[in-house]
């Protein structure tokens, strides 16, 4: 399971460490319930951040429940941690002191929405003499953790050619991956008693599926030498990619949002150029070649383009309030006791899953707020 020995430092191999799925609400629920310094209210929805005019601090938040009850919460400090869409919405709907929305003096709230761009079947790799190592195609276990190799562009190439982050997840070609599934299906058919008519229909359907798949595959290439490439890309920050309020209202009477997701030329340039560079370096390393299905760069995005459900941006971090919503400590510009936690503060998104960075920023913010409370930086509610 050795990585590919690339001849130039344009493409690199990276290792992805898989983490067991952790549902925080389930895993930490009992710990939160027993904590002496935490009171959790489930089903309680913040519908307004109350501020004086001009809004220099948050004096309290109004909360409403779908059952019809409502109440107000006072605190010395407030942290929004509702995700990349809802953090922006909460600021936009809190518009009594500022008609454009709280902390939206410079029209920055909701802007720079980013997603990780996924393209599942936009390229294949055809290997030459040997198969690509399972280090890339399925991974292996190391020190009790499952790891898997990825291919990415080097930082030097990204900087030189002005490209965003890109990585390729390599998988076995569909038909070769499906062989174990076909064997399993045949085993079920052979070992279980089925009515003759149903058995015949099952065989007929299986034969039609196999014929349809085989008809799409070039005859010259053995199945074991073909690999699918899942493209995972960073989206370039774009102020026109944004969250805005619309005319609709939810069950609590709050304005709903519209997501105006917008990509730029650099996003498309990155994946096209990445395919070219990957192909060149795979050939130079004697591994094989990459065949892109993207067509021309001027063509529309493939219909298979999708987001990873990694909502980022919308309350981006920047030292200048004219270009961002929060400062380096995740404090909302101009609001003394209001902070934002989560991926909405990301100024850029990279191509890796954002959870680890979200947790790291949240821990850093918790330490900052705790220290500020001890030092008495916030006025008593």
Q: What can you tell me about this protein's structure?
A:
- The structure is a single chain.
- With 381 residues, the chain is an alpha+beta fold.
- The protein has two domains: 11-19 and 117-235 and 266-307, no CATH class; 41-114 and 311-374, FAD/NAD(P)-binding domain, CATH 3.50.50.
- It has helices at 24-27, 29-34, 83-93, 134-137, 155-161, 174-191, 196-216, 265-284, 355-374, and strands spanning 11-17, 45-50, 60-64, 70-73, 78-80, 117-127, 140-142, 145-153, 166-172, 226-233, 242-249, 255-260, 288-292, 306-307, 338-340.
- The strands form four sheets. Strands 1, 6, 7, 8, 9, 10, 13 and 14 form an eight-stranded antiparallel sheet that branches.
- The chain is elongated.
- Mean pLDDT is 88; it is low at 175-182 and 217-223.
Largest beta-sheet details: 8 strands, antiparallel
Structural class: alpha+beta
Q: Could you estimate the helical fraction of the residues in percent?
A: 25-40%
- Rg, nearest Å: 26 Å
């Amino acid at each position: 399971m050795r990585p590919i020995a690339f001849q130039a430092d344009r493409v690199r191999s990276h290792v992805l460490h898989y983490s067991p799925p952790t549902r925080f609400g389930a895993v930490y629920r009992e710990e939160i319930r027993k904590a002496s310094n935490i009171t959790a209210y489930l089903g309680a929805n913040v519908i307004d951040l109350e501020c004086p005019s001009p809004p220099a601090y948050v004096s309290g938040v109004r909360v409403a429940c779908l059952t019809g009850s409502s109440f107000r919460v006072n605190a010395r400090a407030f942290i929004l941690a509702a995700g990349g869409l809802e953090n922006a919405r909460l600021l936009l709907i809190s518009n009594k002191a500022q008609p454009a929305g709280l902390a939206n003096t410079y029209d920055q709230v909701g802007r720079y929405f980013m997603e990780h761009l996924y393209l599942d079947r936009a390229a294949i790799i055809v290997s030459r003499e040997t198969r690509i190592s399972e280090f890339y195609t399925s991974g292996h276990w190391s020190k009790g953790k499952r790891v898997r190799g990825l291919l990415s562009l080097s930082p030097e190439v990204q900087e030189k050619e002005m490209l965003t982050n890109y990585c390729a997840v390599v998988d076995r070609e569909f038909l070769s991956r499906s062989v174990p599934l076909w064997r399993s299906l045949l085993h079920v058919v052979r070992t279980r008693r089925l009515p003759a008519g149903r058995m015949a229909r099952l065989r007929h359907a299986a034969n039609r599926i196999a014929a349809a798949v085989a008809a799409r595959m070039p005859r010259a290439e053995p199945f074991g030498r073909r690999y699918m490439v899942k493209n995972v890309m960073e989206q370039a920050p774009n102020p026109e990619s944004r969250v805005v309020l619309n005319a609709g209202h939810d069950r609590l009477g709050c304005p709903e949002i519209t997501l105006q997701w917008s990509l730029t030329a650099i996003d498309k340039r990155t994946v096209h150029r990445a395919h070219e560079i990957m192909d060149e370096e795979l050939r130079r390393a004697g591994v094989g070649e990459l065949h892109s299905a993207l067509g021309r760069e001027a063509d529309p995005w493939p219909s298979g383009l999708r987001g990873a459900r990694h909502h980022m941006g919308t309350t981006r971090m920047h030292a200048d309030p004219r270009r961002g919503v929060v400062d380096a400590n995740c404090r909302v510009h101009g609001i003394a006791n209001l902070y934002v936690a989560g991926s909405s503060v990301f100024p850029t998104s990279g191509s890796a899953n954002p959870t680890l960075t979200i947790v790291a920023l949240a821990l850093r913010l918790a330490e900052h707020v705790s220290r500020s409370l001890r030092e008495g930086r916030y006025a008593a509610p």
